[in-house]
Write a structure and sequence with these properties.
The chain is of the alpha+beta class. It is built from three helices and four strands, in the order ββααββα. Helices cover 32% and strands 11% of the residues. The N and C termini lie far apart (80 Å).
Length: 88
């Protein structure tokens, strides 16, 4: 009879990869919003519209890869501006 080997998961729950990147490198909507000077709610709206990429974890948890967001904005030439800001 062959001896069974114990196979352990080598990945830790905090380093599971999503899209080739560790989840730890993904940030929340408020962080993306702070980078571009808009609210986290506006970032979530852009994600819901499919204009920027996001990672959904469950029903309420949404995370963003800052580099993927920057690339998407650059490729689609979307300019994120504060919707409440008056033009000068």
């Amino acid at each position: 009879m062959r001896k069974q080997q114990n196979i352990r998961n080598t990945q830790h729950s905090d380093s599971l990869e999503a899209g080739g990147k560790p989840i730890m490198e993904h940030v929340n909507a408020d962080s993306i919003g702070a980078t571009y000077g808009v609210s986290g709610r506006y970032v979530l709206k852009l994600a819901a519209e499919g204009r920027i990429p996001c990672l959904r974890i469950g029903k309420k948890c949404v995370r963003f890869d800052p580099q993927a967001v920057a690339s998407a904005l650059e490729e689609s030439r979307i300019t994120i501006t504060n919707p409440n800001e008056k033009p000068s």
